[in-house]
Amino acid sequence: MSSIGKNIKKIRSVKGLSQQAFAEIFNLKRATLGAYEEERSEPKIETVIKIANYFSISIDHLLTKELTVNSLVQFKDEFTTATLSKTKNIFPNIPCITTNYTEQYPEKAKDSKFIQTLPQLSLPINPDKKFRGFEVNNLEMTNHDKGFYPKDVVVGEFVPKAVIPKLNNGTLIFCVYERQIIFRRLYIIKDTLVLRADHKNIKDIEINLSKISELWRVRYVFCRRIPEFSNQLEDQLVLIQHEISQLKNQLRK
User: Fold this and answer.
1) CA–CA separation, 70 vs 122, rounded Å?
2) Is the dihedral of CA 232, 234, 236, 242 positive or negative?
3) CB 207, CB 177: distance < 8 Å
4) Of 107, 153, 197, 239, which has the fewest beta carbons less than 10 angstroms from its beta carbon?
């Protein structure tokens, strides 16, 4: 016969659980648990697995070795360390450029020590990709009460320069350019990047691709209220208007 009955009783004693409390955790009847502890019967393997997982004990130890107080405490410590380690691997820490760091970031973006001082976001996303968070600090991406407001946070995935021309027009991005961080929609015309705000009174910014220090494609957003964004048709019409305007200017020359 295995050691499961004695071990269940030992676990209850160390954890300060009554038979009723222990039984309720695993959807058992108190009498059934009593039978396990008195070694009149043994739990099903499904129950053994649940108990082992719940108390962070290996199934082999639970079934074949008589547990001690010290071993139970050690199991808990090992479980805690392993859990924290796994959590860090699954939920990578993402540096977030808050308002307090906006002015410093363009100059220190390549400084790993500075990056480590930034506030960190922890999200269940792909740990193999490079992400950066950015706190919105103006109203340039609003339009008739829609869009992004100060204190909203956008999380972007790093885009290598070679990939930037392949991005779709209207893609939300934030980029580092001439000691400033610009949060706009991206439109591409040959080697020129047109950064357009959703706010109609904000002029476009046109930048040569070679002048961009960093560009991050927005993948996640955290808004202080539920936002409403402009649709793709509106974006396409705005782009057409921009191109028509450029053609008119060329014809006038």
Assistant:
1) 34
2) negative
3) yes
4) 107
Instruction: Tell me the two tokens of residue 180.
Output: 């400033």
Q: Per residue in 209-233, pLDDT tens?
A: 999 999 999 999 998 776 555 555 6
d(CA 231, CA 187): 15
Q: Amino acid identity, residue 245?
A: S
What's the mean pLDDT when you consider all of the chain? 84
Can you tell me the distance from the alpha carbon of 83 to that of 75, in angstroms, rounded to the nearest whole number?
12
Which residues in the chain belong to E strands, given as ranges?
93-97, 120-122, 131-135, 142-143, 146-147, 153-158, 171-177, 180-189, 192-196, 205-208, 214-222
Express each pLDDT in 23-58 by its tens digit: 988 889 999 999 999 989 989 888 988 888 888 888
